[in-house]
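<context>
A single protein, sequence plus fold
<sample>
Here is the protein in question:
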Amino acid sequence: MDQKRKTYGIDIAGVHRELQLFEVKPGLKIAILNILGDTELVEACAAALAEKLSNLRYDVLVTAEAKSIPIAHALSVATEKPYVILRKSYKPYMGDAIQSETLSITTGEPQTLYLDEKDWKMINKKDVVILDDVISTGSTLQGMRMILEKAGAKVKAEAAILTEGERAKWANIISLGHLPVFTD
């Protein structure tokens, strides 16, 4: 592990980070934002996103497992709104769960998202904000939308710390910044 990876520097909510570049397929690299364990960045992003969402009326935040859980929790504290996590594996205690398939750019493989029966009851007929750490291809976002539609929730907005790739594609996303993709 002596090899020094190239990085991409970015300022997010007043915090500077050097994001390591990883190849996700031949000739295509992305800058990886990993907020797990980065309390300073998570807290700064939650405060900035809370400000951007302050004029919006909604009931619940919804995110997908796992890297965006810290921002969902911190934003929940900042906004005093509950949050729901769409899980990536089914457990028997989840009861009559709703599911949807997605394809994440970071894993490169299909994943299934599940909405726990308990959480289904919490978001049914509610206004929700979809939240993610980085929106890249939109596949996870689409999977979340499908589950929320099946659950009877109304998506009021979609938010992320960062968007990635084609900037114009994400014009309606409430975000704190944008990442380019890197080609050889």
Remarks:
- Residues 32 and 44 are 18 Å apart (CA to CA).
- The mean pLDDT is 92.
- The first strand starts at residue 7 and ends at 12.
- Residues 38-176 form a domain with the Rossmann fold fold (CATH 3.40.50.2020).
